[in-house]
Amino acid sequence: MSDPPRSPLQILGVMAADEVQLTPTLRHIEAYTMEGLLTLLWHGAPEAENVLVCCGGGMGGLLGPADALYHSLGESLWDDFGIATVRVGYRKPNHLPRCVLDVAAAADLAGRSGAKRFVIMGHSFGGAVAVQAGIVLDQHCVGVVTLATQSAGCEGAAELTVPLLLLHGDVDEILPMDTSYVVQAIAGHGVVEILQGNGHLLDQSPDKIRERLTTWIPDRFTPQTRNPPNP
Prior knowledge:
This protein is of the alpha/beta class and 231 residues long. It has helices at 8-12, 65-81, 96-113, 125-137, 178-187, 206-220; strands at residues 16-23, 26-33, 36-43, 50-55, 84-89, 117-123, 141-147, 164-169, 191-195. It has a single domain (8-219), classed as Alpha/Beta hydrolase fold, catalytic domain (Rossmann fold), CATH 3.40.50.
């Protein structure tokens, strides 16, 4: 009789963990492993059923593009909708398999506290992380957002069966907007939205991006809109 499959947290091999409550609605969690330190910033109650997971780029990071988008979304989604946000600081940035495992482990930890549904969002390299993590989470993922994504690492996007939103600047100096269209084509669905005058960090339109996402993300957690692939 074979052993049951290990969970992402078990695969991670956490040796020790610590956390501190920074504000009434924000926790800082550190998990120590033999392959590096996993850092999580967690907005909202641990028992929240709906959770956004945010992935950094190839250099890591916890703030996100578009004028610290991940932090501001974490605050507003919890205050306005009761949606928690987990910002993931990778153990080893730019190592795709380990970063996907980090995101899966963050979702695993949230699930042990009560989370049932996830939207995964990633910037640049993190777009590939978000796509792969969305596939790994399977029925627990209800949407994927990419921000100025790369196409490398998204070759399996056809396995995504959830709504996919791809935001990209038209003057991206690192990854041209065509990469989002490539990922859309691989997935066979998804909505590409081009942000005029924006480079790779999408810092020309932070308010517009926040406004779009504070509509799109809550809609994914609404039962009647959870399954359509092209909202």
